[in-house]
Amino acid sequence: MNHPRTVIAYINLAHFIDHYAMLVFAAAVIVIAPVFGMTYGELLPYATPGFVAFGAGSLLTGWLGDRWSRRHMMVIFFIGIGAAMMAVGLTQTPQQLGIALLAVGLFAAIYHPVGTAMLVAHAEKLGREVGVNGVWGNLGVASSALITGIVCQYLGWRWAFLLPGAATMVIGILFAIKVRHEARAVRKGAQQGSVRVSKDAMWRVIVALVITIIASSTTFNAFTVAMPKLFAERLSGITVNAALLGVIVAGTYVFGALAQYIIGHLLDRHSLKILFLPLALTLAPLLYFSASLSGLPLILICIGIVICIFGQVTVNDAMIGKYTSDEWRARAYSVRYFLGFTAAGVSVGVVATLHERGGFALMLQALGGLCVLVIIGAICFPQERKVHG
Question: What's the pLDDT score for residue 389?
Answer without folding.
Answer: 43
